[in-house]
């Protein structure tokens, strides 16, 4: 295998996976603060449902096309998204919880 093939087949997808993980882990401190303070403050938890759904969708697609870099890099997005939703759900208002529940159960 030549260097160009190795870069395109392994290095670039690995860099993409690292960037995706950095994106998924970025709200971690804010969610831990919510759990510690027992209130959301100005944090909006609704996008975390999208993060979990996005991760689940990319995992399914990656499995279908048999690409480890696609599904492997999104496992952390699914798990962290679920953690964020479950952590913030208990401190959110009833209105926000209704929106989160509707999004998770696909009842738009």
What would your notes on this structure say?
With 108 residues, the chain is an all-alpha fold. The chain is 80% helix and 0% strand. It contains five helices and no strands. It has helices at residues 3-25, 28-37, 46-65, 68-89, 94-104. The radius of gyration is 17 Å and the shape is elongated. The model has no long low-confidence stretch (mean pLDDT 92).
Which descriptors apply to this entry?
5 helices, 80% helix, mainly alpha, 108 residues, elongated
Number of strands: 0
In helices, the fraction of residues equals over 70%
DSSP strand content: under 5%
State the shape. elongated
H/I helix tally: 5
Main sheet summary: none
**What class do helices, strands and sheet pairing give?**
mainly alpha
Mean pLDDT: 92
Beginning-to-end CA distance, first to last residue: 49 Å
């Amino acid at each position: 295998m030549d260097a160009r093939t190795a870069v395109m087949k392994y290095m670039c997808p690995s860099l993409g996976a690292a960037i995706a993980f950095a994106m998924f882990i970025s709200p971690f401190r804010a969610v831990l603060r919510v759990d510690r303070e027992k209130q959301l403050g100005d944090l909006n938890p609704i996008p975390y449902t999208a993060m979990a759904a996005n991760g689940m969708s990319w995992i399914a697609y990656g499995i279908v096309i048999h690409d480890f870099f696609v599904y492997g890099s999104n496992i952390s997005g699914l798990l962290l998204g679920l953690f964020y939703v479950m952590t913030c759900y208990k401190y959110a208002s009833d209105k926000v919880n209704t929106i989160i529940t509707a999004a998770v159960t696909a009842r738009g």
